Amino acid sequence: QENGETVYWIECQYKDKIQDIINDILNRISSRDYYRALMKDKGIELNFLTTILRNLKGDKRNITLIFDELGNVINKIGDNAWKFVGALREVSHNYNIRIIVSAFQEIIIKQRDFEGPFVNFGETIHLSAFTKNEIVELLIEPLYFWGKIESKSGVENKVKKYFGGHPLVLQFVGKRVIEMILQYEEKTVDKIIDKIIDDEMNYFASAVDDLFLKIDSYLERYVFLSLCIEFDTTLRKEIALVDITQNTLQNILVKAKNKLGLNKRIFLLNRLTLRGLLSQSFSNKNQYRIECPIIYHYLKSYYSPIELAQAYLNEINDNPIDHFQ
Question: What DSSP string describes 200-233?
Answer without folding.
Answer: -GGGGHHHHIIIIIT-S-HHHHHHHHHHHHIIII
